[in-house]
């Protein structure tokens, strides 16, 4: 291996990673409303825990996170959506962004992965 090989491999892996990251489309608030509202969203958290969420058209929301169930409210934000659960997170609001990659959706909090799911 010559001196340029590690640099070349790093550049190739960087381009591949960038290309994969760009494969997912960040959803606008309008797209979130059109694609996710009124559907059961089934998947898992970043930690691997089972997750089912439903955003209702009236702004109410339901979640099943493992063995925990909760209800709350959601609304669209400038760049995504915000959730406030009755018990989870002590009732504090959390805002998220969402990306779509085919039929898989991923959510992010402050740019960090939060969950992934598919609508049913």
What does this structure look like?
This protein is an alpha+beta fold. The chain has one domain: Beta Barrel (Lipocalin). It has two helices and nine strands; from the N terminus they run αβαββββββββ. An eight-stranded antiparallel barrel has the order 2-3-4-5-6-7-8-9. Strand 5 (68-76) and strand 6 form a beta hairpin. The longest helix is centred in the N-terminal third of the chain and has 20 residues, at 4-23.
Q: Please identify the structural class as seen in this structure.
A: alpha+beta
Total DSSP E strands: 9
**Shape, principal axes of CA atoms:** globular
Poorly predicted spans = 5-22
Second CATH tier, the architecture? Beta Barrel
pLDDT averaged over residues: 86
Major sheet: arrangement of strands = 2-3-4-5-6-7-8-9
How many DSSP helices?
Answer: 2
Q: Beta-strand level of the residues, as a percent range?
A: over 45%
Q: What's the CATH C level?
A: Mainly Beta
SSE map:
Elements: H1 4-23, E1 25-26, H2 29-36, E2 40-45, E3 50-55, E4 60-65, E5 68-76, E6 81-85, E7 94-101, E8 104-109, E9 112-119
Antiparallel strand pairs: 1-7, 2-3, 2-9, 3-4, 4-5, 5-6, 6-7, 7-8, 8-9
Task: Please outline what is shown here.
This protein has 120 residues and is of the alpha+beta class. It has helices at residues 4-23, 29-36, and strands spanning 25-26, 40-45, 50-55, 60-65, 68-76, 81-85, 94-101, 104-109, 112-119.
